[in-house]
User: Fold this.
Amino acid sequence: MIDAFVAGTVLLPDGAVAPGVILVDDGTIVAAGPQAAVVIPTGARLRDFGDTILGPGMIDIHVHGGAGHDFMSADAAGIAAVTRHLARHGVTGFLATTVSAPWGATRSAVERLSRAGLRLHLEGPFLSPARRGVHPVEDLLPPTLERLDQLWQASSGRVALITVAPELAGAPEFIAAASARGVAVSMGHSDADWRAAAAGYAAGARSVTHTFNAMPPLDHRAPGLLGFALSQRELFAEIIADGIHVAPEMVDLFLRAKGRDRAVLVSDGISATSCGDGRFCLGSIEVEVAHGACRAGGRLAGSVLTLDQAVRNVMRFAHWPLEDALRLASANPARLLRNSTKGRLTPSGDADCVVLTSEGDIVAAFIAGRQVD
Ligand SMILES: [Zn+2]
Assistant:
């Protein structure tokens, strides 16, 4: 059975068409274009979204949990609850993100999440003690090929992204080996100077983790990892656009530097997301949430941002149109991960899509053509 999704505006990779249609067969897009150019087969099930906007589903490559569940401990029901919570916010794909923990706990979390069919972002333990944020210092480890291999085996090859501080001993070799397996490496939680950042990039690093956070601030005589992130045209860079981790004016400045092809919105969302204020867990770390800010021992510890709110914030902070803001949460993370079937509404791509209002509010989300309630 073919589904025809029709909407007032459809956001395609080359621009918006109005009105537009995508045809979906068995979870895959088989045609996409202006309504006048796409023939809807007789017998197709018509899903008409009226005057709304149909766009690619969002992909959160840095999320630790949500709706009361933390990926470091979530069981199958918890994982399903987080998946539903994310979809309600327009996120149709994500990387379950770990936090530094004792080595055995990291390995078992990686095994459990992989068995549940998730793909992973390992945030730690290969981080700089000087820029660890709330990651427990005693759990940090130097990056070695042996440890990479152990985590790769534990995940059955489902590690998609690893955050590494490029200045650590052995980091360039680690980055090269991870890249050779198709894992994207992101530089972060790092005290790296320009030279160490450049060495990490030369070894294969493709992105920077929550730019501005957990790295030295910008110094005009010592540009460091942050200066490197802002100035390297090809390097992707994550940003937590909640207005708390980075001031709205600096989000605007960041977007001017990285542009519409390399900036990547992430939530860094923790279990507390959509749970209100209170005490929550991020791995073994106890986090206090008050007025939308997550702190542990006075330091920021993840966020309660949702990715749809990040998109709306970009529209507000930088006066970007919805179409461009959404791209930072869909096409860009997919391209960072070299995933050609997600992040864009295009024939032979997965039918992961969202229906939005012109203000960026989520009306509905579909994963492989099926609506998530
Ligand atoms: Zn972090």
Notes: The longest helix spans residues 248-262.
